[in-house]
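Friendly challenge for the regulars: who can give me the structure tokens for this chain first? No prize, just bragging rights.
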Amino acid sequence: MKKSIKIIHWTPRFLCILAILFISIFSLDAFGHGKPFWNQIGDFLMHLIPSFILAGILLLAWKKEIIGGVIFILIGAIATPWVYSHNFAMNQSVGQTIGIVMTLTAPFVLVGVLFIIGHYMKKKEQKTKGSIT
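First reply, four minutes later:
Bragging rights claimed.
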């Protein structure tokens, strides 16, 4: 496999893991509210549901790049208006809200695009290898 294809192969996987870990950090707000320990654990696990779903999609994308890529793009595109309206209502700052949107949703759109690019680059390399031999 060419070096450029290896980079395109591993970059979306690495970025997606980082993005999922970043989203997971927000689950830590389930702790420290004076609730019993087991209630806090339950709240923590409930807050991790989006991370579990994203991890499942990553596993799908790992093998089926085109399908996973499309799903990640859709997740980013669908979540963007919701994240924007929610955060704008809280802080009334367009600039800050756009920054938050770019931090939370843009990585998943980028990951999706990279998965799709990787799929087509590998397909093109396979065609090239097939025609040479």
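Helices lie at 3-25, 37-47, 49-63, 65-91, 94-104, 106-132. The chain is about 85% helix and 0% strand. Your move, everyone else.
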